Amino acid sequence: MLSLDFLDDVRRMNKRQLYYQVLNFGMIVSSALMIWKGLMVLTGSESPIVVVLSGSMEPAFHRGDLLFLTNRVEDPIRVGEIVVFRIEGREIPIVHRVLKIHEKENGEIKFLTKGDNNSVDDRGLYKPGQHWLEKKDVVGRARGFVPYIGIVTILMNDYPKFKYAVLFLLGLFVLVHRE
Amino acid sequence: MAARNGKNGLLEKWRIDEKPVKIDKWDGAAVKNSLDDAAKKVLLEKYGYAENFNLVDGRLLICTISCLFAIVALIWDFLHPFPESKPVLAICILTYFIMMGFLTLYTSYQEKNIFLVSVQKDPAGMDLNHTWQLSSSLKRFDDQYTLRVSFTDGKSKHTREQEITKSVGAFFDGNGTLVMDQFEKCVSKLHNTLATEKKTK
């Protein structure tokens, strides 16, 4: 067998200790998961933290900024406000400003968006045949932001092997290291 | 037959109970863990006590239940996408964090620093069993290791404790290898002091 000295601690563990190491790993993952879901419940948004992926909202938001969103039913969407939305069938959230709104008496709205730094409105981005967005497409409204930190997420997505390597090493470290 | 032997052989090669313990002497957690393990070994192998796992099992149970709640939340949210899953999610999250609080209380007040609960069975099978508990502490960046042995008489339920504080330098050589003989002498002395007290009382 390879002499991997760092595994010595693991080899000396009995069944209970091994199970506890696995549980420890599970608890860390669970805690992260629960905090994320907790944020989802508190803010009402299905993606409470998003990263700005393009420069279409400069100079307000730059690529790599981290945005904190809320999606409360009571917040009405008004022209001039920045919303984060998803186009049906696409995963990527887009952060743009509301340009026009059509509102029915019962509160249903249809709205058009445009990025501050773009020269045309977003109709080119919508689904073919779709001319307006509705409330159900909205992921949330930006309530706070932290600049630049999101670059890490962009890097991890551009180089998935790097992401998997980091996660693998972290996982291994937690599993092997005793408290 | 050959396959079974082969599997046992592999398992034996994996386990290294007989290899002398070598750790990074500057890693406080590893030092304490190896001293605790060695003390456990002395009590279980030399004196032949049986380990009682109830304390550890309690902690494992709390952790397992917490993880189960997290898994339930994950699966429910996957099956019923977000807005509909809100109430179930909220319950699971609250329960999870309550369990976390519970776990912290459990480790602080129930477990304290105890790492071994063992039972000394009466050889004649007549009297009740006595309980030996080991607990220890080693402060961060400190070299003074305190080992506490506590003996609880099966009949009188009376508890007696004895502790010893020594520098970890007394038990490890320069390379970080644990000198088992020295440590065993120390633990045995502690144990025998308590055992003889029992006889004289």
TrEMBL record, chain A:
**Can you tell which superkingdom this protein's organism belongs to?**
Eukaryota
Q: Which residues form the Peptidase S24/S26A/S26B/S26C domain?
A: 38-125
One molecular function GO term is:
signal peptidase activity
Catalytic activity annotated for this protein?
A: Cleavage of hydrophobic, N-terminal signal or leader sequences from secreted and periplasmic proteins
- How does the record say this protein sits in the membrane? Single-pass type II membrane protein
Membrane-crossing residues? 18-36
Q: Which UniProt keywords apply?
A: Endoplasmic reticulum, Hydrolase, Membrane, Protease, Signal-anchor, Transmembrane, Transmembrane helix
Give the family, as the similarity comment puts it.
Belongs to the peptidase S26B family.
Its job:
Catalytic component of the signal peptidase complex (SPC) which catalyzes the cleavage of N-terminal signal sequences from nascent proteins as they are translocated into the lumen of the endoplasmic reticulum. Specifically cleaves N-terminal signal peptides that contain a hydrophobic alpha-helix (h-region) shorter than 18-20 amino acids.
Listed name of the protein = Signal peptidase complex catalytic subunit SEC11
Q: Give the gene symbol.
A: SPC18
From TrEMBL, chain B:
Give one GO molecular function term.
Answer: peptidase activity
Signal peptide, first to last residue? none
Key word Nucleotide-binding present in the record? no
Chain ranges passing through the membrane: 56-76, 88-106
Please give the InterPro entries that the UniProt record associates with this protein.
Answer: Spc2/SPCS2 (IPR009582)
- What are the GO cellular component annotations? signal peptidase complex
Pfam families membership: SPC25
Where does it localize? Endoplasmic reticulum membrane
Single GO BP term: signal peptide processing
Topological type in the membrane: Multi-pass membrane protein
Its name, as the record gives it, is: Signal peptidase complex subunit 2
The species this protein was found in = Oncorhynchus mykiss
